Amino acid sequence: MRALISILLLLACVLPVASQTVDAVVEQSATEVDCRDMRNTRISEQRVYRLLHERARDMAQFAIGCSKWQKLTDFNGQVTDATGKVIRKFKKGDLKRSDLSSGFADDIYTLMLDYTPPSYPITIEFNWVTEANNGNFGFPTFAPVEAYNTQVDHASYVLTVPAQMACRYLCRNTADQVIQSTLSDGRIRYEAHMDNLPAIDSEPYSPSARETLPHILWAPGKFELHGVSGDMTTWQGFGAWIHSLLKGQQELSPEFKAQLHAMTDTCTSDRSKVEVIYNYLAQTTRYVSIQLGIGGWQPFPASEVCRTGFGDCKGLTNYLCAMMHEVGIPANYVIIRNDQRHLVTEFPSNQFNHAIAQVPLPGDTLWLECTASAFVPLGYVHDGIAGNDALLIDDNGGHLVKLPAYTPEQNVSNNKAHVTLQDDGSAKVDFNMRYECRQYEDMLPLMSRTEQQRRDAMLSGINLSAVTLGDFTFAEHKQSYTTPHIDVSMQLETRKLANITGSRMFVPVGIFHKITVPRALQQRVQPVSIGYGYVDIDTLVVTIPEGYEVETLPQSSSEVTPLGELSQTFEATDNTVTVVTRHLMRDGRYPATDYATLRNLKTAVKRAYDQRIVLRRK
Amino acid sequence: MKTTRLTLLGMMLCLASMAWAQTLEPNLKWGKPTDAELNMTTYDPDPEAEAVVLCSQTVLRYDLSSGSLKLILSTKKRIKVLKEEGKDEANGAISYIYNGHHLDDCEQLVKLKATAYNMVDGKLVKTKMEGNMVNHEDVTKTLRLTKYTVPQVTVGTVIEVEYEIESDFISHIDDWWAQSEIPVMYTSFDVTVPEYFDFSVDERGSYRLENKIEDTSMNLAAGIQCRGKRYQFFGRNLPALRQKKLLYAPQSYGQHVSMELRAIQIPGRMTKYFTADWNDVDKQLLEDDEFGGRLGKNPLKTEMQEAGVANISDPKERIMAIYSLLKDRVKWNEEYTLYAESAGKVLKERSGSNASINFILINMLRDAGFEAYPAVLRSRDRGMLTVSRATIKEFNTFVVAVKVGDSLSYLDGSVEDGWLDILPDHMLVDRARIVSKEKPVEWVDLTKLSGGKARSMVKGELQADGTLQADVQTKFSGSEAASLRREFRMATDSATFVSKLAQDLNCEIESLTLANHHGYGQEVERKMHVTKQCDAAGDMIYLNPWVLNVMNENPLTEEQRTLPVEFPYIYTENLTTVVNLPEGYVVEELPQPVVIKSDDGTLSCVIASNVDGSALSSRCQIQIGKVFFAPSEYTFVKNFLDEVVKRLQDVIVIKKVS
């Protein structure tokens, strides 16, 4: 796949790029990372942006996250108008500071500058230096394309490190090379350039930018973070370092241990023990975001989480593992990224933002989300982690694993509606919907809402108006170790189901969903990415009012593509019409040319849902 | 008018709330939750509440014991967690003015305590919040946020939080909010003000709080006694505030008490008066350096002369020429303010808030011989202005009113795509106040401004296979024109603009041209040639004549509503379609015409079709003539929109006859 992306990007350079909108030009992007030893790093940065349109206004803002260990030591900037006149200069004192964080606590504060360019085009230059003294856990990625519709003229990156650090790099989506040399002081110097990178458009159904844009990843081999050293040349080594941070964090008090045994000793199977512990976690803890401790990598001690009843993902996961161990269940700490399916598996480095637990029961490996245990049923792998690469930590270090994912057929919504139509166009409609797996998850937030909000949400989801809702049930069915689902039933009346013209009635078929077709593109550049596979099966049964007959029944249709499928069938009896529509989407990565296929499929789906049955008075 | 309606509704709701009020007396003892509180599992008036405020007490007092007069705010709150989602109540944040190490003009959080109470195996277990569960974040140089997280909070927990803020801002009292996102069983606000201060006290919202106002004596410090006035407000069984769509400031509908300083009377000194009536507000604004002080010389006199602005004879065009001359030099920085920076600074930095731009504009307009004034307002996202409460605090920004002929027109520095009288929707308020020594009127209604209008003409040729080829011409004006301009300006390129429109209309667009779509202007004209597929089967064609999507769905989907509906601006849509039928085809059946009108005429919809030979013509007119609809009007508005949406889907039956 990587080769394919590179080829596509090359094509993009050759094909008529002139039609590509450029909102900003990175005239110069220079990064110099000077790693003097295992603890101290100085990074000098320069950016020169020419902003051509106010769509690129965000690039006139400067913001940097700092901490006690990573400080901004120098900053200046200037703005030059189209005539070459310097109209504004910035200095460090112009930056505003804020500690505001989204969670409860972290170590980071932000320094920022909010500038409004008076006109376009305009050139903005920022120069800044940061110094860090908390170790060399990672180095900034060389990724000079910072936004869509932004072209890069010149970009350079220099990294100097002590030889014993055994630094590594990986070039992705680029043919550019890294030049390596040894300095007189014995340190190793890496240098890379990327010039004349074309702008790319934001396109619907695109993979994340990091998967297609040219970039170079850097990582140390031997490293240190807040005085704790490790070696991340291999995943095994990365995991061993995490493991060292967990050591001693899993102690539990004797009283609590006794309590755990009292809770589980009567359990007849490991599965029921796991259930007891998982439910106990749900009932007694809550998630609080705390990004503190060895750069946010060391979990709070299990005893502390036990005492306070709260923790972040690491703290809760570590606590769960500790409890499992105590009652004789194997459990592993797993680090993962909750917003990306894939890790760059060939490049061991810090790519994680979340922690979960794995419980390897014989023949049934469980993946447990500890931050939402009250909501996620035991055994269900939620979408933030399902199918993702992850690193499992045990006594032997780290091991790459892949979490199981649900198939499109499992992510099903089964919708049935029985419409009893009256001769004035009004109707009684009985809906019965079932949502499973990922589609269940989509509906899950409604469980936390009020009944009225659920009614309103369900009514706005279907494609009917002038509705009076009668009986309504919204029920979650979850049980440990089974696939969860939500059942919704609605009995409603609508004053207007069919449109009436003289002796005819037009009955819409697509009352279940609202469909949009992705827009047409002149030229599709990026691969097509479908993040979520699912199937909708809709059955509509219309009982025709007395005195009416079918004049026109729409054509049945069927469309089968690698990306998905559609089938729709119509069947009429004397007084009923049954319409079955099945629409499946398959998650995955497809070549750019399949964008047309996707549009055709979605157009067919829209057309199918836009069909009307025509009835006529006998 | 609107206030009366709201108050009436408030009284109705109030009666309703009394009907379900539990007569459970609040537990006013802190540190001792009752068995009823500990064992409670649901809150009957709102069984779905994730948590409930059992008791909340806020006491505000003046204190001189440290030698300087301080205002001390003490808050105590007891919350019951009823559901998983309610655990979030264990996390809180308190914001206050904090000047770092400068101890003047400061607020200090002097006390913050929290305790969780849980029943474990029939025994009450108390868990106190510890120091490391409190975290301070300096959001800006002067604003501090203290976040806290209470331990051992789970479903069933009773949480008590208590904090105290000492403030040097003795003349400023923050609004006190009785309602919150979770229901409140009991809440009280108790303020004692020394005789030296005179505050106006207002209660707002749709409920009525019990209150008690009495004269009292008070101790400011040991041995220092004075007379004072004590205000107490009590609320019981107040429902949760749950956000609603199509409202600019849902939170502002919550019950609250506002206090505004009217005067300070220190014995032996002259009484110092603060705002009392609206004329005083005008005066205060005009005397302020950053408001009235910004009125004066035209800083762009030479530029205006060089541009020959005076030669433009049409006054509206002349105003717009002045505006665009200014906007070429100063870019709006995306902030709305009431006060302005100096013209010198704004012109040097070439960017500024709407107020900063507006003052320069007023000075330019006055220099060009126009009468121009600031029209101050409370933008819709801040909630409604209370006319009975004359204070500067009511306003957060202003627009420029300029006299053209006998009437006033309006303009604002934030406008990028509009024209005279086309303002951003959140500035379309029913009361803005002209601030000037001599003024034509005091209050002006801006809600009828900026109306969006679209007038379309569709000329189509229908083919026997059901294909409709059509030329579509639309004139957009008012806010509709401004939003189209903005959309075009911010679209990546014209191809994207067209493809998004085609996606929206669900048809193929073969060509598209726009006229007058750059810069400032009144109307935008759009011409397109489109192809659309209609249903055809056998000898029949089923035609929906509306190529344009005027209204696809009803934004009002809630079954019922206790808060009003606010539309962005008034709106008129006119649509005419003329379709030539294919050779040998005739119209077999037409849908019934539609005529709907609300009693006050503010909502209307007329749809009708007729046939003339082989030409079929259909007309549609929709009008939304006001922006604010009271909750009592909700059902009508919802049904109206439902009907319009549905009837726009009507079908004309066309049949082959030869």
Main sheet specs of chain A: 8 strands, mixed
Rg of Cα set of chain B: 31 Å
**Strand share of the residues of chain A?**
35-45%
For the largest interface in this structure, which chains are involved and how many residues does each contribute? A-B, 73 and 77 residues
- Total number of strands of chain B: 36
Tell me the total number of β-strands of chain A. Answer: 38
In round numbers, the mean pLDDT of chain B is 89
Cα distance, first to last residue of chain B? 62 Å
Write down the overall mean pLDDT of chain A. Answer: 92
How many helix segments of chain B?
A: 10
Shape label of chain B: globular
Oligomer: heterodimer
Helix and strand composition category of chain A: alpha+beta
> Strand content of the residues of chain B, in percent?
35-45%
Write out the strand line-up for the largest beta sheet of chain A, numbering strands in chain order.
Answer: 5-4-9-2-1-10-13-12
> What is the overall silhouette of chain A?
globular
Total helical elements of chain A: 10
Short recap of the structure:
Chain A is an alpha+beta fold and 618 residues long. Chain A contains ten helices and 38 strands.
Write the layout of secondary structure elements.
The complex is a heterodimer of chains A (618) and B (658).
Chain A: H1 2-14, E1 24-35, E2 41-51, E3 62-66, E4 70-80, E5 86-91, E6 96-98, E7 105-106, E8 109-113, E9 122-132, E10 150-161, E11 168-172, E12 178-182, E13 188-197, H2 209-212, E14 215-219, E15 222-225, E16 228-231, H3 235-246, H4 254-264, H5 270-284, E17 286-287, E18 290-291, H6 302-308, E19 310-311, H7 313-326, E20 332-336, E21 354-361, E22 364-368, E23 389-394, E24 397-402, E25 412-421, E26 427-436, H8 437-443, H9 451-461, E27 467-477, E28 485-494, E29 499-501, E30 504-508, E31 528-530, E32 534-543, E33 548-552, E34 557-560, E35 564-572, E36 576-585, E37 588-590, H10 594-610, E38 612-617
Parallel strand pairs in A: 1-10, 7-18, 17-19, 25-32
Antiparallel strand pairs in A: 1-2, 2-9, 3-8, 4-5, 4-9, 6-8, 10-13, 11-14, 12-13, 15-16, 20-21, 20-23, 21-22, 23-24, 25-26, 26-28, 27-28, 29-30, 30-38, 31-37, 32-36, 33-38, 34-35, 35-36
Helix pairs in contact in A: 5-7, 6-7
Chain B: H1 2-19, H2 35-39, E1 51-63, E2 70-81, E3 91-97, E4 107-120, E5 123-128, E6 134-138, E7 143-149, E8 158-167, E9 176-177, E10 184-194, E11 197-204, E12 210-221, E13 224-238, E14 256-264, E15 272-273, H3 278-287, H4 301-306, H5 315-329, E16 331-332, H6 343-349, E17 351-352, H7 354-367, E18 372-377, E19 397-404, E20 407-411, E21 432-434, E22 443-444, E23 452-462, E24 467-477, H8 478-490, H9 494-505, E25 508-515, E26 523-533, E27 535-537, E28 540-543, E29 565-566, E30 571-580, E31 585-589, E32 594-597, E33 603-612, E34 615-624, E35 628-629, H10 634-647, E36 652-656
Parallel strand pairs in B: 1-10, 16-17, 23-30
Antiparallel strand pairs in B: 1-2, 2-8, 3-7, 4-5, 4-8, 6-7, 9-14, 10-13, 11-14, 12-13, 14-15, 18-19, 18-21, 19-20, 21-22, 23-24, 24-26, 25-26, 27-28, 28-36, 29-35, 30-34, 31-36, 32-33, 33-34
Helix pairs in contact in B: 5-7
